[in-house]
């Protein structure tokens, strides 16, 4: 159950961080304005909140592992929202990152 909770928290964090960054991008690069930028800033703050809820207490470990989730999530976001089509190297890189997440977060450690 702890692994499932951790994975769900990583998913929520990715949604808020990637979504927040996308909203800021839209506000600035696509000239959609301050409301989009403000919504992005709020979403980025929520990302930070969700990251703190991870069961592991090590900030460095959580953020290192989250980096892999961010890589894969960014590609998925691009596919879903911007019509991006990853090539096989994008997919391979994302899978390697997710393997890294699993090793960093879920490998057995002495208590």
Structure description:
- The model has no long low-confidence stretch (mean pLDDT 95).
- The chain has 111 residues and is mainly α.
- The chain is flat, with a radius of gyration of 15 Å.
- Helices cover 81% and strands 0% of the residues.
- It is built from four helices and no strands.
Largest sheet: none
In whole angstroms, how far apart are the ends? 18 Å
* Strand fraction: under 5%
Contiguous uncertain segments of 5+ residues: none
Q: Mind telling me the C-alpha Rg?
A: 15 Å
Helix share of residues?
Answer: over 70%
Taken from the alpha-carbon principal axes, the silhouette is: flat
**Overall pLDDT confidence:** 95
What is the number of beta strands? 0
SSE-based structural type: mainly alpha
Chain oligomer state: single chain
Enumerate how many helices there are, as a single number: 4
Q: Which sequence of SSEs, written as H and E, runs from N to C?
A: HHHH
List keywords for this structure.
111 residues, mainly alpha, 81% helix, 0% strand
Topology summary:
Elements: H1 2-29, H2 34-52, H3 59-82, H4 88-106
Helix pairs in contact: 1-2, 1-3, 3-4
In short:
The chain has helices at 2-29, 34-52, 59-82, 88-106.
């Amino acid at each position: 159950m702890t692994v499932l909770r951790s994975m769900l928290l990583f998913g929520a964090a990715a949604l808020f961080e990637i979504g927040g960054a996308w909203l800021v991008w839209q506000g600035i690069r696509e000239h959609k304005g301050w409301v989009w930028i403000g919504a992005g800033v709020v979403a980025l703050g929520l990302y930070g909140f969700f990251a703190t809820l991870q069961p592991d207490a090590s900030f460095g470990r959580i953020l290192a592992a989250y980096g892999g989730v961010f890589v894969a999530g960014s590609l998925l976001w691009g596919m879903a929202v911007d019509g991006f089509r990853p090539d096989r190297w994008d997919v391979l890189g994302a899978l390697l990152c997710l393997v890294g997440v699993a090793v960093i977060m879920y490998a057995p450690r002495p208590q």
